[in-house]
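A.,

Following up on our hallway conversation. Structure tokens first:
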């Protein structure tokens, strides 16, 4: 039937899982910066490209990332963008972002 060598061992699986977490982290971070750039370049028209609730969640995640990375100028831009273009929405940095970044 199958030999033991046909299946990855525990070390190989751990390495694979670690690599997948690293890739997921990089994709998340890159996605935040890309979304930020969209808001900067397109301004209010960016709000027409997705559901408002999705944009709000993204802004909360971006803000959390930028706080962790101490990129306060980006946080200031997001706050200004929200106050000018999204009345009634209050930014609440997503607390799971820091936990997820530290877990990887």
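Then the amino acids I'd put at each of the 104 positions:
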């Amino acid at each position: 039937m199958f030999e033991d060598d046909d299946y990855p061992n525990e070390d190989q699986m751990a390495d694979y899982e670690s690599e997948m977490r690293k890739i997921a982290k990089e994709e998340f971070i890159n996605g935040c910066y890309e979304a930020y750039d969209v808001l900067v370049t397109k301004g209010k028209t960016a709000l027409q490209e997705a559901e408002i609730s999705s944009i709000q969640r993204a802004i909360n995640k971006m803000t959390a990332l930028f706080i962790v990375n101490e990129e306060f100028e980006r946080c200031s831009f997001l706050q200004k963008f929200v106050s000018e273009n999204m009345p009634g929405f209050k930014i609440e940095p997503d607390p799971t972002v820091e936990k997820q970044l530290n877990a990887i």
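The mean pLDDT is 90. Curious whether your intuition agrees with the design.

B.
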